[in-house]
Amino acid sequence: MARVKAKRIAAAPVLELRGVSKRYGRALVLDKIDLTLAEHEVVCLIGASGSGKSTLLRCADLLEPIDAGSIALDGRAVSADDRDADETRRQLGIVFQGFSLFPHLTALENVALAPRVALGLTPTAAEKRARALLKQLGLAAKANAYPDSLSGGQQQRVAIARALATEPKVLLLDEITSALDPVLVADVLEALRALAKGGATMLIATHEMAFAADVADRICYLEGGRIIEQGSPEKIFGAPRDARTRAFLKRVRSVGASALR
Amino acid sequence: MTAARSARKGTLVAVVSTLFVATLLAIAIGSSPSWPLVQKAFFDGTYFSTSLPDVVGAFFINIQLFVLAEILILPIGLLIALARSITNPAFAPLRIFATIYTDFFRGVPSILLIYVLGFGVPALRLPGVPKEPFFWALVTLVLIYSAYVSEVYRAGIESIHPSQERAARALGLTRFQALRFVVLPQALRRVVPPLLNDFIGLQKDTALVSILGVVEAFKQAQILKSANFNFTPLMTTALIFLVITIPMTRLVDRLAAKDRAAQQGGAR
Description:
The complex is a heterodimer of chains A (261) and B (268).
Chain A: E1 13-24, E2 27-38, E3 42-46, H1 53-60, E4 68-73, E5 76-78, H2 85-90, E6 92-95, H3 107-117, H4 123-136, H5 152-164, E7 170-174, H6 182-197, E8 202-205, H7 209-215, E9 218-223, E10 226-231, H8 233-238, H9 243-255
Chain B: H1 2-30, H2 35-42, H3 45-85, H4 92-107, H5 110-123, H6 133-158, H7 162-170, H8 175-205, H9 217-228, H10 232-264
Helix pairs in contact in B: 3-4, 3-6, 3-9, 3-10, 4-6, 5-6, 6-8, 7-8, 8-10, 9-10
């Protein structure tokens, strides 16, 4: 297990969620979530499906309005209802479980679209940035390929490059290896490790416990829309204090090595 | 090798059997006692060749009508479709107007609208309002077919999975940018076959404007028919329409088959 941590984490929070609650109809999906993310920090959200991980990320990305609480980016309160919510979204990158690449655009065009359209870069500058990102993610040779001719792992790396193209302050990753063949997962996780090493600030929802233990500065265990326990990977995986965390981890381990890859 | 040979054999069998049946039919029809009468009234060679130049000449009016109409319908239909797709409550009046528009113009018989607009509006003698039947024929066809085409566009837009718009918005694109760069390019590709289908209907419906006295191909054929009391000019007109519409239907079939293959293959 190659350690990628041991880096300086700035004190000022980049992303700060205070008492964030979210309902879908009657169901309370997020229940007064408090979570801060410092610059260069990597936080992993773990928990069963339906525990609120994805909703938390979508709310943090202002893709869904919240019902209570507040979100601050770089100390500035932001909301999905803001006039400049689009501008805020440019400062946040999100990668979805299902890739959601644009099928009518090549890998390069997928990555270059937001810099050109949302940031207003010239086509040449946007393309240059996109090429550099694809190269960084090991996809230089696939720049002109359409998504449907790429493997799942390659598509997901294009999606990561696309999310990085607006140079976001925080990268949000929503179970991005869940839809992948086990053999393709390694590539994607390797790419994330490299990003973490490079100092990216990331909030990662994941089922990959070994990966989380390896890459995260902090682990948050979610259940029923609440953060039950958070702490260093050593603490959460080694000596969880809450009975619910212990029960979850025990369940995950009993599923076998595949869930702990 | 074997597959190619059996395919060739299949084609040969198909050609021979078709020719055989066609010959039998021709003999059966040709030998029936009433055939000379039918042939004289509908398929007279002399009337065909004399009517052809006149009907073809008049058909240029039909071509002008549908080409102009199609050029106008493509953007108007899209605007109506977009108006119906806006979810912002502030734009509710626009959405309601677009909905009423499509309901109305898709639900009223074309010939009735052509009649009302083509005869009724010029009869008002409003200053500055054109009286030419061609103008009103064009307006009516554009109004009706924009409604149809807007529904085609809308179906195309709605067929694009919401995750596409969400991904675009997540990148910081505005709602309009997401529509313009992500949703519409994909939607427009999908709507080409149904769009062409509507245009085939439009091309045929240009004959309806004959009721306004516009001398297009059908009206011209009617005039020739009345002059000689022979239906052959109408058959000539039918033939000219078919020359235009059959290749287009084939094209639609091919595009649709290509789309199906692409979707099954998981291609774009």
